[in-house]
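Reopening: Switch-associated protein 70 still failing for me.
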Amino acid sequence: MVGLKDELLKSIWHAFTALDLDRSGKVLSHNLCTVLNVPHDPVALEEHFRDDDEGPVSNQGYMPYLNKFILEKVQGNFDKVEFNRMCWTLCAKKNLSKSPLLISDEDAFKVWVIFNFLSEDKYPLIIVPEEIEYLLKKLTEAMGAGWQQEQFDHYKIALNTSREGLSAWELIDLVGSGRFSKGMDRQTVSMAINEVFNELILDVLKQGYMLKKGHKRKNWTERWFVLKPNIISYYVSEDLKDKKGDIILDGNCCVEALPDKDGKKCLFLIKCLDKSFEISASDKKKKQEWIQAIQTTVNLLRAGSPPPHKEARQKRKELRQKLLAEQEELERQMKELQTANENKQKELENVRKQLEAAAARAAEEEKKRLQTQVELQDRFSLELEREKMVRQKMEEQVAQKSSELEQYLQRVRELEEMYKQLQEALEDEKQARQDEETVRKLQARLLEEESAKRAELEKWHLQQQQTIQMTEAEKQELENQRMMKEQALQAAMQQLEQLELERKEALEQYEEVKKKLETAANNTKSWKDKVAHHEGLIRLIEPGSKNPHLITNWGPAAFTEAELEQRQKSWKGKKATSE
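Support: Ran it again with your exact input. Result attached.
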């Protein structure tokens, strides 16, 4: 709530300073209560703005009323753009430059709001050169142009020689002059200002057209999506007039890519606690950008961190405060050295005066001694020698003091050289910090890409492991079937061998029976003639023909093929009758 109060105070400060003192309190208070959705309190308003000397119709007296009756009641349920536009309306006409600018009044308003966001937290409000460089770089990047660092360095040097920074109206003049957007038309500059305004002020992290699948009719509809730190809103078009819904983001949400289906490509899924949303991007690059942006937003919500541009602004302010503290400490040390140097100079001056006085006294004494030398030569010869010794000592002291003075001056020169080196080192450290920040952002982006690829590789690895496990199970089942078939084959082979043995035994029996039949045939051959005339009465039992005998399940058969065919016909007839 303190941060919101500081943001509101900057816009209110512009509006208050632009109004006349005799009507600024009431006019501004009515408008603030309206746009901030704060209940009006006419009694308190009239009490604080009664027409006497104790009323708060001044910069100092208005602040207690503003804090107590307006700012402390603000709940955050107001339109920030409408609030800023009200303050802009009260102050723009008086302060905006009359010279023609390359930007419209709407773009000037957005630059004014951006100034309030980037300006220092002290009054009167100014924006320092580092924040001016940050803003111009963002605008140049949004326009798709190259940043002219050398041109800005010249401008920064000229600016630092005259003052600490720019006011809001000077910043509008700088952007509207086209000094850092040469070659760009008004529409391009306006689109760049709008893009930076959406990011820094409206907290728009990403926006664009995508297809969304409905929850009821399951149809796909094109929507304009706007990603903010804790919500994704989607509209019919990019003019944001017809809002169709919101996707509330929190630390429990997640986003994941989906395979192409139903003729839609570049799909991804946003999972929330209550429902999920299927989205289709225009291409793979847009899909990856949206997935990364949404995942980054969810990670910030889990960590409780502010949006990236607000966190970067805070870090820049902390860095400036640290450098300012170091510079003030260095200046303090230089002042101490300068004070010590002045004290030394005074001591040396006192010593010099003492030496001059001593030299003057010595000269006077020398003059008196020369005048009385003839008369007192014998008497004061010893004193003369003593005086010479004293003079010699004093000269040695003077030489020693001069040497000390020279050493001290040499030390002062060394300290001045160290001060220059410290300044150079401070500039090098500042440049190194900027390079480190650039490398850190690059490393963060590479780490995020590596994390995404590693998650995808882990997913592929898990699928491969599952496939290998399924293949191993199928292989084990096939091996079991093969073993069962081998066992059945071995059993069949054993049965075949047993049948082969039985067949051989049957053949041996058949051979024995054949031999017996041949013997019996030879014995009965002589009887054929005797019983020939009795053919119709008696039929001798003869062995079968010498053709190969038929073999049945019971062994070799004793009937011919004709007899077998007759029996088959008889069996078939019986079977047909039974059926």
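Residues 157 and 355 are 49 Å apart (CA to CA). If you still see a failure, please send the error message rather than a screenshot.
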